[in-house]
Amino acid sequence: MTMITLPYEDRHCGDLILVNRRYPLHQRALEKEEALDSQLTAADPAWPEILLARPAAIALQKAMADLGAEGGIVPVSGYRSRAQQEKIYRDSLEENGPEFTKKYVALPDRSEHQTGLAIDLGEGGVELDFIRPSFPDSGICGLFKKEAARYGFVLRYPQGQEPVTGIAHEPWHFRYVGCPHAAIMEAKGMVLEEYLEFLEGCSDGCFVWDDEDGSAQIRYIRGRENGIQIDVPEDCPYQVSGDNREGFIITVWRRR
Question: Which domains does the chain have, with CATH numbers?
């Protein structure tokens, strides 16, 4: 085992951060926006202006290749700066009014698009609405929805979860949370808000997820203002992510 230190401010960074009306992007994440630019890459090489954080982009490109979805699914909107999100919000207010905008457009600093981990996808070959692109449950779009969790993506705003997420059903909006978290959320029918509460509430402080490739040990640790030190294995891959609330999620993978 080896010991690492987790600064309190780092709970606002990582693949599992919760960004919504209650938990906006923290100054820690906003300060990293310039650094984030160097970590972004094209969500689809055919659409080089639409960017994602590198792990999310790599996973999305693999999904598109494996599913034969090139051209059938197109990226519509990925990473947005704060200025871009502010303009989209302001333009929607003017064009669509406050009721529509509240349902479908997040306030600046409360949009997942500013993390580089969210992607809006559209059905290829049809005229696309930037705010509400067509992404049906049938055909290649339906296949992607079915297989998305294998690649670390979840449908972020499913129907029926509006009271929890605060956003209307968006069948086109996918969030990268990585593996195995996407598979667990799908299996348990949880959105990110519920999943983080679930991990925090595990009675023994640890949740184990098994699949055909191995197992993942997931634990939630509350941060402290003076930082915390944790032990992580030297012989297994691991990942640490903040939740943008009060703690960290540590994931350790063990192959069979």
Answer: 1-16+180-256 (3.30.200.180), 24-176 (3.30.1380.10)
